[in-house]
Amino acid sequence: MSQQPLLSIKDASLAFGEHTLWTGLDLEVQPHEFIAVIGSNGSGKSSLLKAILGQQELTGGQILMQGKPIASRKVGYIPQSRAVDPASTLRACDLIGLGLDGHRFGIPLPSKAKRQAVSRTLEAIGASELAKTPITKLSGGELQRMRVGQAVISEPDLILADEPLSALDLHQQQVVSALIDDQRRAHNAAVLFVTHDVNPILDLVDRVLYLANGKFRIGTPDEVLRSEVLSELYGTQVDVVRNQGRIVVLGTQDHDHHPEEEWK
Amino acid sequence: MTNFDWSRIFNFTDFAELLPLVQNSLIAGALLGLVGGLIGIFVVKRDMSFAVHGISELSFAGAAFALLFGANVIAGSITGSLVAALLIGALGNKAKDRNSIIAVLMPAGLGAGILALALYEGRASNKFGLLTGQIIAVDDPQLIWLIAICAAVILTLLLIWRPLNFASVDPEVAAARGVSTRALSIVFMLLLGLAVAASVQVVGALLVLSLLVTPAAAAVRVAASPLMATLLSVAFALVAVLGGILLALGGGLPISPYVTTISFLIYLICRLIEWGRRGA
């Protein structure tokens, strides 16, 4: 597989004043790759996505997509699950439609092509029956499924997901992450998936980018998520414990235990 | 209870003869209804109702000074509006900052405007009109101004409708898709400034909200889709302003109490409909 990489991050660094988030970051994302971006709070995971989108200027280095500066049109974006405006009149189909032509000038004229694209997408994410449901009535998991549809309807080459599973229960985390995996295969898209907990997507990821302490490690989960690797990264003793297919990282001094994400 | 003469408020004698006199007002009203209904949808989506009020006070100040110095009142009103809109847009990116900036600007504008009116020695009804609305008369030069402002607002709004909507309802994803949310928000503030300046001419600075916010706020209560919300918002604004002009005709009173009352009643009915649906 000697294709041109889809996304090349070359010697990238990002600093806010004295505080360096990461430096010397090199990453080549191949088409169809699923990469988890993990690390502690404030390690610059979300800033990396912003840099890829061109919303955050790098302190150094560059990011290219297919050899060219990023064209955000070819990127699908899945945000965190947030409460929606209770006065919103959007229906699920409207939310997904925004992903198709929301950025274009003009007024939304009725279009058969758009209707078909939206209904194809709804079908693909198994949510046809929710098409006309107001987004204010969707559950957190349903809303995130729509977000996946919104991100893939424009056939992106790259999907950026920023903590898309936060605030979801375990079952919904599985449903949504499986859907992202399913859709990236269907659309031949690579995925950069920012998360503070790798467990829900551990079986799906090809590689892991672990950011901590201004440094980083890239590799398969088995290569990176090891006590000796993370201890070196953090510069302190860190234990990676595997239990029933789950990975728990202990001793990083940041919140590796979130009470709101307590497993039931 | 003394006998109040209701015909002072609702009087339809000579209605047919009076109607041609308010032709200009009706045209202006229809345009304002269209503008108010359309832009109101975005005011509600972007949670900027308070900004509308803030802009209208500075619009009033601009108009009052124009009146004092014998300049074009509409031009003064537009200047005040645009200054306010740009200040609010530039200084208040976050909702919290924005509200305090508006609260600071509003009395400053109102106070300055009152000073200008106190110094003004012309017709008293001109003064009163800026705050609480005109008594039906819109003359030809005024109408041309209003048509030009409304046309500019409507056309620009139609041009940027989709990205503005995306940026308003889903800002994070819109930005990720390459929509320049910051540029759009400045353009929107300018459009809002123009719409406020136009509305001040007819309903007065204190009552602008009844045209630019109430119809849209009522529409989103009952609408089941974005298109329906927009259509209802425009319909409600048109009913309020045209209804207000026609009802005010016989009594010789300002149109604003009629406009605001119709607008408020529509809102009330929409809340009741919503409440009824929930109970069902």
Describe this structure in words.
The complex is a heterodimer of chains A (264) and B (280). Chain A contains seven helices and twelve strands. The longest helix of chain A is centred in the last third of the chain and has 17 residues, at 170-186. The termini of chain A are far apart. Chain A is an alpha/beta fold. Chain A has helices spanning 45-53, 92-101, 112-124, 140-152, 170-186, 221-224, 227-234, and strands at residues 7-16, 19-29, 34-39, 60-65, 68-69, 75-78, 158-162, 190-194, 207-212, 215-219, 239-243, 246-250. In chain A, the strands form three sheets. Chain A has a six-stranded mixed beta sheet with strand order 6-7-8-3-9-10, sandwiched between helices. A four-stranded antiparallel beta sheet of chain A has the order 2-1-4-5, with helices on one face. Chain B has 280 residues and is mainly α. Chain B has a single domain, classed as ABC transporter involved in vitamin B12 uptake, BtuC. Helix content of chain B is 79%, strand content 0%. Chain B is built from 14 helices and no strands. The model of chain B has no long low-confidence stretch (mean pLDDT 90). Chain A binds chain B through residues 53, 55, 71-73, 75, 77, 79, 85, 87-91, 94-95, 98-99, 101-108, 132, 134, 147, 150, 160, and chain B through 44-45, 47, 158-163, 165-166, 169-170, 172-179, 220-221, 223-229.
Question: TL;DR of this structure?
Answer:
Chain A is an alpha/beta fold and 264 residues long.
Largest sheet features of chain A: 6 strands, mixed
CATH superfamily of chain A: P-loop containing nucleotide triphosphate hydrolases
Give a count of the beta strands of chain A, DSSP E runs of length 2 or more: 12
Strand proportion of chain B, as a percent range, falls in: under 5%
H-E string of chain A: EEEHEEEHHHEHEEEHHEE
Describe the protein's topology:
The complex is a heterodimer of chains A (264) and B (280).
Chain A: E1 7-16, E2 19-29, E3 34-39, H1 45-53, E4 60-65, E5 68-69, E6 75-78, H2 92-101, H3 112-124, H4 140-152, E7 158-162, H5 170-186, E8 190-194, E9 207-212, E10 215-219, H6 221-224, H7 227-234, E11 239-243, E12 246-250
Parallel strand pairs in A: 3-8, 3-9, 6-7, 7-8
Antiparallel strand pairs in A: 1-2, 1-4, 4-5, 9-10, 11-12
Chain B: H1 15-18, H2 23-45, H3 49-68, H4 73-91, H5 95-119, H6 124-132, H7 140-159, H8 161-169, H9 171-176, H10 181-203, H11 209-212, H12 214-222, H13 226-251, H14 256-279
Helix pairs in contact in B: 2-7, 2-10, 2-12, 2-13, 3-4, 3-5, 3-6, 3-10, 4-5, 4-10, 6-10, 7-10, 12-13, 12-14, 13-14
